[in-house]
Amino acid sequence: MILGQEVFYRYGGATLTGLAYQSLLGGMGANRVVEVLARTGGFGVKVARHRLFETTQHVLECTKSLESIQPGGAGFASSIRVRLLHAAVRQRILKLEQSRPGYYNVEEFGIPINDHDCIATIGTFSATIVWLSLPRQGLFLRRQEIEDYIALWRLIAHYTGTPTDPFETPEKAKAIMESIVMREIQPSQTSKLLAGNIIKCLEAQPPAYASRSFLEVNARWLNGNELSDALGLGQPSIYYWALMGGQCLFFMALCYFYRSFRSLDQRKIAVSQHSHVGSPAYPLHLSLPINMFVCRPSANSFGPSSSKENTGSEKRPSLTSNTYLTSMSRPKPEAMKKVELGLENVVSRGEICKLYSVVLLVVGRASTAAFCWLRVF
């Protein structure tokens, strides 16, 4: 398992970018899944960013060390909590449908958070990253790295109660991913609303205060224009496309350089794991990933946090009267402090932040100039 964890940190920046803009935003194209997400109340503009922190913490706990993913470790405990949360959400939605017919159409959308959905979720963390997100950023994993990374998420799937057969081999994992993408990605109006909320919650946030256009070009680069248009994403200018190309070149240079030298690679991974940051090139525009279902409901769970918020569905009754679910929804103070500390560590690395920004700016402007020169001649 430790080798799979090393793969995550070796390609940390690009992996987090893929999880945020393809696994998350691309996943919003699954019209059945978004009907469950809309009813958790976790994707309103005011609360979505908090969900990103929570799920990022889950991923970091699962990849921190071998001990963390073993029984009794932080990653193991976090995965078990996710499993219990899935069961609680599933039960409450079904009970609401019984008491309020029409709240959730089981015949049309299926049982909430069923095995098929859980397989798709694990696939977005593993197969989608390996065969879609990283290659579209110019990064291609070696065979052993693919096997190790798939094995890591197969273990996490076992902890969360997800069937593990689809992840027995890389070939099966890839085939399952392709089948799910072909069958499930059919964006609806709810998909468009939730995707817009995610972009909005990340826009102009510290430490990089990325613009909406830069967030949208990340999503378009990874998902393609057809899906992005269906999700209602804007059309960034050529400058942002060049900037995104510069980011990919930066990730390629960094990852391939460190991968070529074993000692440097191990040192970078050790530093990253210790600081709980994906890599020294951690995406400063906060490309925080989120599992499609790993979201701890807050005080306004299963309903919008505000009647004015755009949650993708009408206001629904609160389920927080269930004390068991409410107690599960409270984030661990220690875990949240770790996330905040990790972000502070990124900001404190002033030289890295400056280097990242300067490289992107220079490469972006150079790419734009080259494109304009080609257009002229």
Annotation field: number of helices: 19
Q: Could you give the distance between the termini?
A: 53 Å
* Backbone CA Rg: 20 Å
Helix content: 55-70%
Mean pLDDT: 80
Secondary-structure element order, as H and E?
Answer: HHHHHHHHHHHHHHHHHHH
* Sheet having the most strands: none
Integer count of domains = 1
- Percent in strands: under 5%
| Low-confidence parts | 277-333, 335-354
Quick one: overall form? globular
Structural class based on helices, strands and sheet pairing = mainly alpha
- The strand count comes to 0
Give short descriptive properties of this protein.
globular; mainly alpha; 377 residues
Overall description:
By secondary structure, this protein is mostly helical. It has one domain. The protein is built from 19 helices and no strands. Helix 1 crosses helix 10, helix 2 crosses helix 9 and helix 4 runs antiparallel to helix 6. It is globular and about 60 Å long. About 20% of the residues have low confidence.
Write the layout of secondary structure elements.
Layout: H1 2-10, H2 12-24, H3 31-40, H4 48-63, H5 66-69, H6 74-99, H7 106-109, H8 115-125, H9 127-133, H10 143-159, H11 170-184, H12 189-202, H13 212-223, H14 225-230, H15 238-260, H16 262-275, H17 323-329, H18 333-348, H19 350-376
What's the gist of this structure?
The chain has 377 residues and is mainly alpha-helical. The chain is 67% helix and 0% strand. Helix 2 crosses helix 13, helix 8 (115-125) runs antiparallel to helix 10 and helix 13 (212-223) crosses helix 15.
